[in-house]
Automatic annotation (TrEMBL):
Residue ranges occupied by any Poly-beta-hydroxybutyrate polymerase N-terminal domain in the UniProt entry: 118-290
Keywords tagged on the record: Acyltransferase, Cytoplasm, Transferase
Organism field: Bosea massiliensis
Keyword Acyltransferase applies: yes
Subcellular localization, as worded in the UniProt entry: Cytoplasm
Official protein name in the record: Class I poly(R)-hydroxyalkanoic acid synthase
Alphabetical list of PANTHER family matching this protein: POLY(3-HYDROXYALKANOATE) POLYMERASE SUBUNIT PHAC, POLY-3-HYDROXYBUTYRATE SYNTHASE
InterPro entries xrefs: AB_hydrolase_1, AB_hydrolase_fold, PHA/PHB_synthase, PHA_synth_I, PhaC_N
SUPFAM superfamilies membership: alpha/beta-Hydrolases (SSF53474)
One Pfam assignment: Abhydrolase_1
Domain AB hydrolase-1 residue range list: 293-507
Residues spanning the membrane: none
Amino acid sequence: MDRRTGETSAGANGAAEVPVPDLDAFAQNMSRLVEEYGKVTAAYLKPIERGEAKGGQADEASEMVKTLGRVAEKWVSDPRKIIEAQASLTGDFLTLWSTMLKRAGGEEAKPVIEPDKRDARFADPDWSAHPMFDFVKQAYLIGTRWAESMVDRAEDLDPHTREKARFYVKQIASALSPSNFVATNPELLRETLQQNGENLVRGMKMLAEDIEAGRGELKIRQSDPGAFQIGVNIASTPGKVVWRNDIMELIQYAPATETVLKRPLLIVPPWINKFYILDLNAEKSFIRWCVAQGLTVFCISWVNPDERHAGKDFESYMREGVFAALEAIERATGETKVSAIGYCVGGTLLGVTLAYMAAVGDKRIESATFFTTQVDFAQAGELSVFVDEEQIRAVEEQMTKSGYLDGARMAGAFNMLRPNDLIWSYAVNNYLKGKAPTPFDLLYWNSDSTRMPAANHSFYLRNCYLENKLSKGEMVVGGQRLDLKKVAIPIYNLATREDHIAPARSVFTGSQCFGGPVDYIVAGSGHIAGVVNPPGKVKYQYWTGGPARGTYEDWIAAAQEHPGSWWPHWFSWVEAQAPKRVKARVPGAGKLPALADAPGTYVLKKA
């Protein structure tokens, strides 16, 4: 066969045919690959040579080694159990070898282990059709299952260490998957031979660009960064910035109806990410939809902090964020009463603010909605693996040097919760297949990370995740001891069923902390997709069942399932509380002049 023709050789056992590469072109591309690798090295070394390298990786690696070392100690203390564990692993591999021999002899052989049907890593037919790749896949799955069982079966291991160990095993297993390497991934091998290695050259070029963009650290692109422009085709709902201070801009959105509900709506988004998760494209924008229903919407856009904001703590965000917004809304509309929404940590801040307001008799917020928010952290999500005294001290030491936590650290933590989907699938697609990721507004937002002020982040980690003071009535803010039971206003508390960050069970427990009526609602999907679920898509469902009483399991078993978006259900709840309407308000037409067009200037600053 002519090696220049691109013809393929027949595969075995139903496996795909193997492309025959052009060896001259392949050799040339390997030479180009070495050149591109040199650029990768230069991009990595440049910040080190300039003394600008970021710290923290050594602390993280040390924590992983210590955690897995504690698991190993539990097994080493009982040699008999080590022998049993080794025998179990050896037995599985002998069974696998036996099935492979049967298959080689032409017999039918049931797999020893199969991947989850939702695991996209092994979707290519050759993972099952080709004996070699099938063996590699099953061997990997057996080893992964065994490593996970070693953590689960380790005796006398405290729950936090066990959760951390599970987390680190998941990271290691995800990184070592045979799907991540050209030689052990049939799809990658075919593409590399078919393209004469050109895919690897393109991938190495993108790798250098992404390390350059991360200033010495790999910042994996998850979407086409050139496909979106903030204020043009994302975060484009019309409005004006009507107030600005050191930590936030307040956006008032332009009306889309002749009349609006008299009571304005204030949205308090998380500062861990930028606010426009609630204002993606026109079809997905929660803010645009709210405006279309006749709500006067105000939304906080938090500053992307730097060293000047190091001392801004939770009280600062309450006073200069929520309280400043309430004062600005009164000046803009004449209204002293508002409804408020808090999302994720923005919801935690709103909960803290409501407890403070209850303590001092401030009644400006008449109803509150929480999106995937925790106020009780006893059953916190997977992010709790990053929180213990040693890890918090390490983070605080890093923040002391800069005054903030780098946005890439938090973004990396979120991605590590789903490493196969949010890290390795893109690493394979970008750097091994050499394909640029497709435009996706949600993932563009996900990569648009923000920093966190040192004082704020330290307070949050210690008072919420580590010590759970808010739900215990022990948190002190502004000289007031906070008691959520004194919060008697109506609350709409939205959880999402597959949330890894604010689990539905944790939000259910938090609902019981308040002293007033709480409508607990569960939406389908997870932390983001369950919230950004517009009525036009009819993608996910939601469940209603009244107050959060008893156990979460009993509540969800008895709850009524509804198809489609929860957004109309929420609006009916808001409208029923204060149905009076007034003439639509134009941003900048009142006592507060417009300072800039929405989405403002703070949102444009990159981390």
